[in-house]
Structure to design on (777 residues):
């Protein structure tokens, strides 16, 4: 939001310089239920689109709103009973017997001479004029692009940039929602790219579908869309769970991810409960074993199971032998994952944590290991480690009085409902982060197509939501939980195009707004130019000057 | 609004003389046609020029009859041609009367006002047909629609339709005028949808004869481009 005071003269000058289309006049309204405005007769109802950013000029205030509904109205019931036969009569009756109205929900108001826009506390008077917003209005509300204001798109049918306040964005957990094929990962990459370019946080991405590292295939244009590493060079490290697959896609990972059996915790396995088919009794058994055998419980359990010595070992434990055998059988699935070793030479978890603490960014590619088992196991182990370390660092930092340490961290989770469903959210590390880790400078960026699968408490903690098209009614309802005026916003979600449109709502934007998302390739080019310093006009890939090598 | 200052001696007010006033009141004037059976058209705009002002009216009623109100014409069983040839004196006993509803006036040296003049025109003033530019000026604010609508005549709808068609014909952008005036009519009959439609259909009818179908889409196009 701009912080300069806006003088009355400046407003007047602004007004003069613009000639946006007049839409209508306010005819009724309330703060609770919104404003109804009658459309001018000259404005065709077909030209008015839901989601359009509009301005209502009160006598002292300017109200900013979006169009939530368009409605046909009539003054005389007879018209509806016998609609006019010929076009001429229909045209004449339009504006006298029939007319159209639009429903508005003002969200912000700007008082002449005041500093910045505030949330609405009143409504415009009768017959206040409603007009389409002009580019200057967008700038007034959303600020102009700079280092910490990321232009992310334009309002519907407009050309001026809508900016996301990145400083506010990184402060809280956020989400990108949308059904498949709506460009969620492009949006997410833009958000992360903006954060990286502004150097506001370290970014960790669990990249289940290999889209965030070097490049991804654009399903629509069949082009290679550059991803984070291509945009930011050595500031971004690629860790691969499946290095062979990475190489086949001609991506050279910086490191390979290996997981030692010792690193696997009961909590990780609890998250994988459905994938491993574990019962409640088996979960309890695991806890008993872990308590008894310490960190190497899993190694010992599996070894004993294979050696056939399990019976002797558990003799003294108060667990059921058959149940433990079944448990071991189930847990064998974990050892079959190629990146899980009994012992590892290179501790990837530590490496990743150090990189993130050094304000670098990490993308973990899963290659062909796209089972939820692999994805969730790796994410859980790493996140737990990070959680632990960040708390430690934060405590140390506050003891030393060091501000801004550890760096803000954004953990990006795809298919987040797997981690944050109501059952998992209460027991696993991800729920804890979503709920409490803001204090420790860690936040989540949740990317998901089934928001209704995410725990309600977690959803209500989300700061900024970027919502692309969603079909399912429950999902539409779920994305807006905890948002004021959710029903009105639901209409906007219902009207999103399935591509390149999204609703921005929450902490990092002054008011909810539907936008056409920015062209990704233009964004990528811009980012490359910023990180490699000019000269990359012709879109050639690769750094000319590596500043972070 | 197109304005035209009035001056009694101006040549254009000497237009074709169609009648002479025989009775006048605040709201209407009655005149006898110069020649029997040659009245101004129903719904046409006429004026009466006196020394102080021009009074404008819309022809609302035309009647042919005997010059002597106590003696009605009787059937003669002859064709029109036979009458002209054999009994031309019959025509001297017949006359055409018409009535006009006053809709506007123009004081000497002033502009056209779309409301009633302070005093009616005088008896024996002549009635002449309006020129197109006058029609445009006196119908520009559409006040005549309300005036005619309040006339209380049984044929008010017909009268409105005829007057509006005439006013549209005096304009190059007749179609946009029809739309505007049509809206005024719809507004006038807001509570009587059937009546409004009846008048509106009559507005369309004249144009349906020539190029209504072609002109209305054009009118729509004009509105859209001006809305942008």
């Amino acid at each position: 939001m701009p912080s300069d005071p806006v003088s009355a003269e400046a407003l007047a000058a602004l007004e003069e310089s613009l000639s946006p289309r007049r839409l209508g006049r306010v005819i009724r309204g309330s703060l609770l239920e919104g404003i109804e405005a009658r459309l001018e007769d000259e404005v065709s109802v077909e030209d008015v689109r839901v989601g359009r950013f509009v301005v209502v000029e009160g006598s002292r205030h300017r109200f900013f709103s979006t169009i939530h509904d368009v409605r046909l109205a009539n003054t005389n019931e007879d018209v509806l009973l016998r609609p006019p036969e010929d076009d001429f009569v229909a045209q004449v009756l339009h504006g006298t017997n029939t007319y159209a109205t639009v429903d508005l929900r003002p969200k912000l108001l700007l008082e002449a001479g005041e500093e910045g826009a505030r949330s609405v506390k009143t409504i415009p008077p009768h017959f206040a004029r409603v007009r389409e917003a002009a580019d200057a209005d967008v700038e007034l509300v959303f600020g102009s692009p700079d280092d910490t204001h990321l232009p992310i798109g334009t309002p519907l049918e407009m050309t001026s940039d809508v900016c996301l306040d990145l400083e506010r964005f990184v402060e809280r957990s956020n989400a990108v929602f949308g059904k498949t094929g709506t460009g969620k990962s492009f949006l997410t990459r833009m958000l992360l790219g903006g954060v990286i370019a502004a150097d506001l946080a370290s970014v960790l991405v669990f990249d289940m579908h290999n889209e965030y590292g070097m490049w991804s295939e654009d399903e629509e244009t069949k082009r290679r869309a550059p991803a984070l590493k291509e945009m930011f060079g050595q500031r971004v490290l690629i860790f691969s769970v499946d290095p062979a697959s990475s190489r086949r896609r001609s991506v050279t990972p910086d490191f390979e991810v290996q997981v030692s059996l010792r690193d696997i915790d009961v909590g990780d396995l609890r998250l994988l409960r459905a994938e491993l088919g574990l019962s409640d009794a088996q979960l309890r058994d695991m806890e008993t074993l872990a308590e008894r055998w310490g960190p190497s419980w899993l190694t010992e359990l599996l070894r004993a199971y294979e050696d056939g010595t399990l019976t002797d070992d558990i003799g003294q434990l108060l667990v059921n032998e058959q149940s433990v055998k079944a448990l071991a059988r189930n847990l064998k699935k974990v050892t079959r994952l190629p990146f899980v070793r009994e012992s590892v030479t290179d501790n990837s978890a530590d490496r990743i944590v150090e990189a993130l603490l050094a304000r670098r960014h990490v993308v973990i590619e899963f290659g062909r290991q796209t089972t939820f088992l692999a994805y969730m196991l790796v994410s859980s182990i790493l996140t737990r480690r990070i959680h632990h370390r960040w708390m430690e660092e934060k405590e140390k930092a506050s003891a030393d009085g060091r501000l801004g340490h550890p760096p803000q961290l954004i953990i990006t989770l795809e298919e987040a409902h797997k981690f944050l469903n109501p059952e998992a959210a209460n027991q696993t590390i991800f729920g804890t982060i979503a709920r409490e880790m803001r204090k420790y400078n860690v936040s989540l960026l949740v990317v998901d197509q089934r928001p209704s699968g995410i725990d309600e408490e977690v959803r209500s903690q989300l700061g900024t939501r970027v919502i692309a098209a969603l079909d399912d009614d429950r999902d539409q309802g779920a994305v807006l939980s905890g948002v004021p005026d959710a029903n009105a916003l639901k209409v906007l979600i219902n009207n999103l195009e399935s591509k390149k449109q999204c609703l921005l709502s929450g902490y990092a934007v002054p008011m909810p707004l539907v936008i056409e998302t920015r062209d990704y390739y233009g964004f990528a080019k811009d980012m490359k130019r910023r990180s490699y310093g000019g000269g990359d006009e012709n879109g050639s890939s690769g750094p000319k000057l590596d500043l972070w090598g | 609004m197109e304005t035209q200052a009035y001056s009694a001696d101006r040549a254009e007010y000497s237009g074709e003389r169609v009648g002479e006033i025989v009775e006048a009141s605040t709201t209407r004037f009655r005149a006898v046609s110069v020649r029997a059976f040659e009245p101004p058209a129903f719904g046409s705009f006429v004026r009466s020029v006196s020394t102080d002002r021009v009074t404008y009216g819309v022809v609302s009623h035309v009647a042919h009859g005997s010059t002597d109100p106590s003696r009605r014409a009787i059937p003669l069983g002859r064709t029109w041609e036979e009458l002209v040839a054999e009994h031309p004196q019959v025509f001297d006993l017949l006359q055409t009367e018409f009535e006009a509803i006053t809709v506007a006036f123009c004081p000497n040296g002033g502009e056209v006002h779309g409301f009633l003049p302070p005093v009616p025109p005088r008896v024996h003033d002549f009635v002449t047909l309006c020129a197109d530019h006058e029609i445009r000026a006196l119908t520009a604010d559409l006040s005549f629609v309300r005036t005619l609508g309040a006339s209380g005549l049984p044929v008010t709808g017909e009268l409105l339709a005829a007057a509006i068609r005439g006013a549209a014909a005096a304009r190059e952008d007749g179609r946009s005028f029809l739309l505007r005036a049509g809206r005024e009519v719809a507004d006038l009959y807001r509570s009587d949808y059937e009546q409004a439609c009846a008048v509106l259909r009559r507005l369309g009818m004249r144009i349906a004869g020539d190029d209504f179908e072609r002109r209305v889409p054009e009118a729509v196009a004009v509105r859209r481009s001006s809305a942008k």
